[in-house]
Amino acid sequence: xxxxxxxxxxxxxxxxxxxxxxxxxxxxxxxxxxxxxxxxxxxxxxxxxxxxxxxxxxxxxxxxxxxxxxxxxxxxxxxxxxxxxxxxxxxxxxxxxxxxxxxxxxxxxxxxxxxxxxxxxxxxxxxxxxxxxxxxxxxxxxxxxxxxxxxxxxxxxxxxxxxxxxxxxxxxxxxxxxxxxxxxxxxxxxxxxxxxxxxxxxxxxxxxxxxxxxxxxxxxxxxxxxxxxxxxxxxxxxxxxxxxxxxxxxxxxxxxxxxxxxxxxxxxxxxxxxxxxxxxxxxxxxxxxxxxxxxxxxxxxxxxxxxxxxxxxxxxxxxxxxxxxxxxxxxxxxxxxxxxxxxxxxxxxxxxxxxxxxxxxxxxxxxxxxxxxxxxxxxxxxxxxxxxxxxxxxxxxxxxxxxxxxxxxxxxxxxxxxxxxxxxxxxxxxxxxxxxxxxxxxxxxxxxxxxxxxxxxxxxxxxxxxxxxxxxxxxxxxxxxxxxxxxxxxxxxxxxxxxxxxxxxxxxxxxxxxxxxxxxxxxxxxxxxxxxxxxxxxxxxxxxxxxxxxxxxxxxxxxxxxxxxxxxxxxxxxxxxxxxxxxxxxxxxxxxxxxxxxxxxxxxxxxxxxxxxxxxxxxxxxxxxxxxxxxxxxxxxxxxxxxxxxxxxxxxxxxxxxxxxxxxxxxxxxxxxxxxxxxxxxxx
Length: 684
What we know:
This protein is mainly β. It is built from four helices and 43 strands. The chain is globular and about 65 Å long.
């Protein structure tokens, strides 16, 4: 009898040890497992590189749809006050896929089949009119101090558009009630500048997870007033939700070294300069890197003269305290809505056999800055060049701006104007000739200014993917121009709300702003094609390895691909203007690659591939990372205005993308995650 008890005890102990080992492996997996995608950019540093190599340049043509899942939010029953955009990059951890929606719903699916395991609804109000009604993803955290298999040891953290953080148990989707107030933090509380309106203050990106902290920014409506909600970055205890620190990009303390770069009676009460893009982290150094945006309002800085340091910058913060370690400004005294929309990417560069940890920051100005991760000093040349002065009363533009690796065009002359035909081009030429147009950083003006790049970039929130083996940074860019005009407030009423223009009140300034993308009467860009590109930079040398047109001018599929027909709106205008074969005669079997305005990012894999959706033609594509040659494309139900991801389950590699469009505009309307695999079988 004692022997049997001893045997039972021995077996029980072994089983407990085995269970503990399995749990420990599960906890460690997000930082080690090649088959998982546990952060927005896969790793906390956001390099967007996967070591998976089952899908290669040789076999990528065999990718087929494996399964798809609809959130249901494209249905009319989910109608909101604004168009919603499903832009999430899913996470896959332990064979489970997690993703979030614009309306604050979280789904957990079997990553191999798409079968639903659980769902959660945060109850975002449908009637709200958020300016950027989207959600780009979730965060994952493991509480290493909690007992194995205990509830909420593994957590999914949901950022909601109405500015909440919600902590969920990764296993069942229930709230973690010991976090914040019953599982939720209300980020509207405690701001130095409180939001005036409900929709003024949003949250669209997942928090960074580092050193036991959740580090979160915010999205603030543009151009409303001089004193908007404050763009504070805050660090919360990941376990309890307690606030540990805050960093305001607008200095509030006269001892701050950036204080003197904000001049004017209301300068230090300015709002915004917030971080609406993704924050990345270096756990070894205990640092987070925050990409800040423009101060309020975007297009007139007379109430905030000076360089406005910390705004439009990459700022390295101590993850435990929020202390500024270093900062680098990419635009001085922003007057163009040139936010740092792209997440920084933390990479290791090879300089003649010497390894250097770096930060890559792509910008709306169509440039790539390469900075030392420890100090913020440029690793590749940055030149301060003279730029045009402002002619607007009360404004003082910065006399110089920083220039580094140029990714997209900085100038558009009238002679280069594009159009669907000769009459269309003539109209574009006349429009451009009437504008103030001295190249990039020409300040907004009373007569109207051509902005090149436009407010959507250059590089945009799609950001950078980095192939360490080839030392290549892959960046999607836009090449379309915009028109910006300041109207004296007394005259604003006489201008009316002209069709195609976006107006902003800019309360507290003498001016109203209006802007629009520079489009011809037939609905095509006045800037010449390609309208969007994918650019590869060999970072150690700062040279362009290749650049290619990204996408087509409309929803045009290759022969036999069976792309969905256009669903109305201006997404199909270019195709109608050009005809199925484009503006010039080409082989009818091949669509003309005019390039496409794009929003969404790329990923790279050890199989030598770059995957990206992002374009208005509702395709996902694979390119040879080394050469830029397109190897594969597949139609999507709506544009993949998101960043894809890749993972493996049971030895099979999958590629997934949210095909959500933009709620019915250029990019279409959809609510599906579409998943591909080699010679895939439908798993639903």
